[in-house]
Amino acid sequence: MDKIPISTNGFKFLQEELKRLKNDERPKVIKMIEFARSLGDLSENAEYETAKDRQAFIDKRIGELETKLASCTVIDVSNITDKSKIIFGLSFEIEDLDTGEIKTYQLLGPEESDPDKGSISIESPLGRGLIGKMEGDEFTINTPSGNKEYILNRIF
User: Fold this and answer.
1) Helix 46-70 vs helix 26-38: crossing angle, to nearest 10
2) Can you give the CATH number for the domain in which 106 is found?
3) How many CB atoms neighbour CB 107 within 10 A?
4) Domain with 67 in it: what CATH number?
5) Is 89 in contact with 7 (CB distance < 8 Å)?
6) Is the pLDDT score of 143 beyond 90?
């Protein structure tokens, strides 16, 4: 399995979610199942079915998180000193050459990607197209809606 890059904060976030699911959510749902069983006939017991569905969801998410955490390469972005070209963890400002729209993002792993909150995935078309670019570079990204031309205004 390929290693997935993740920031220190992203790794901690996934660890906290896993801990919450194992220590809080799963024990709660087990108690819900026990209570629902005490109500009698399980064939028409909506509480039991709901609790079992919730348990299946939690168990699946726990498995996903354990796999992701095992396959992560943690990168401390605060230690990045060379900001001459775009690499994982750096923030940048780009300008859409067609519209003049300026956006600022941080390049992070797929688990941390949230464009609405200012982070894009290194695996996204824009993320892949930015790797190695320097301030002032113009570049074209092939997106589902067609080619987009950008200029990298600033790296920070």
Assistant:
1) 160
2) 3.10.50.30
3) 25
4) 1.10.287.180
5) yes
6) no
- Average pLDDT value for residue range 58-71: 96
Q: Is the pLDDT of residue 42 over 80?
A: no
- The C-alpha atoms of residue 78 and residue 81 are separated, in whole angstroms, by 8
pLDDT tens readout for residues 92-102: 999 999 999 99
The whole-angstrom separation of Cα 55 and Cα 102 is: 44
CB 135 within 8 A of CB 153: yes
Given this model, what pLDDT does residue 44 score?
Answer: 75
Which tokens belong to 63?
């498995």
Q: Hey, what amino acid is at 79?
A: N
> Which of the four pLDDT bands, split at 50, 70 and 90, describes residue 3?
confident
Whole-angstrom Cα distance, residue 123 to residue 63? 22
Residues 87 and 147 in one domain: yes
Residue 96's H or E segment, with its range, is strand 91-96
Token duo for residue 29: 């749902």
Global pTM reads 0.81
